[in-house]
Amino acid sequence: MKPVIVVHGGAGRIFKEREEGSRAGVARAALRGYGILKQGGSALDAVEEAVRSMEDDPHFNAGCGSVLNEKGEVEMDAIIMDGKTLDSGAVSAVKCIANPIKLARLVMEKTKHMLLTDRGAHLFARAMGIPETPGEKLITERSRERWKKNLEPDSNPEEFQKDLGTVGAVAIDSEGNVACATSTGGLSNKLIGRVGDTACIGSGGYADNHSGATSTTGHGESIMKVVLARLILYHMEQGLSPEMAADTALDYMKTRVGGLGGVIVVNNSGQWAARFSTKQMSWATVKDDQLHYGIYAGERHTKSVDEALTFESEGF
């Protein structure tokens, strides 16, 4: 099997001044994940590395750069899933962790559980030796300004929810195993303790070697209502291509509950798709040593992996 990785940096609205950084961020994440796959590494390692890269990038609403809850704090959710065994690990409402995706994987591999939340996740992180990151270090000036603006009496909650930015990755490795990973800071000015779709298996992501893997982004409550990730895999199990399965599920979510979002998909034969019903979604994929990436519908830039790695430090 030829390895493939697909990543997204969130569906919604990407402001002009952030487009270049978003393109570069997803391209860099895809290249890092693909580097693991190219050396014979696992899909699990590849998606974790790709998501970790975006958690460290302040352009995205995950890890450093996460939006703030109603009290001005960062609370994050993440999930990872192994398509070979259907094992999954997730964390929700976690604070002071630089890379929630790493903690989610430890939940999968070091506990008998699938989801740890809030204080329990914090205690588990400490037991696993994951260093605490002061909450202030995860807060960017942009997130703080956005939080303050949303506190104003005349602010429009629906408007700020369009600018989402959840990150995710799906991959298939040379052994034919698939995996998914998703990480987010959630909705700006959300209630304390709010958990969205990301940490919920079948909503924020799903992976099964029998069909494929997907990671979702968009309005979390809508995604949960239709269990979007599992719905996409169901359509693929009925014979639809990744692109058709994604479009069918996104259309259902829009018509049934009025929700917009985006998805990345890879099936068990290595076909992939990056689809969205929002105005934009940053995405990138590497297959056959070719990097493809874009933000707008119909936009697709292509570079060889060697060329992309050469110019990585200069942007894309």
Automatic annotation (TrEMBL):
Site, as annotated: Cleavage: 165-166
GO biological process, one term: proteolysis
CDD domains: ASRGL1_like
InterPro entries attached to this UniProt entry: ASRGL1_meta, Ntn_hydrolases_N, Peptidase_T2
Gene3D superfamilies reported for this sequence: (Glycosyl)asparaginase
Residues the record lists as binding substrate: 194-197, 217-220
Identification of the protein by name: Isoaspartyl peptidase/L-asparaginase
Lineage of origin: Eukaryota, Metazoa, Chordata, Craniata, Vertebrata
Active site: 166
Catalytic activity: L-asparagine + H2O = L-aspartate + NH4(+); Cleavage of a beta-linked Asp residue from the N-terminus of a polypeptide
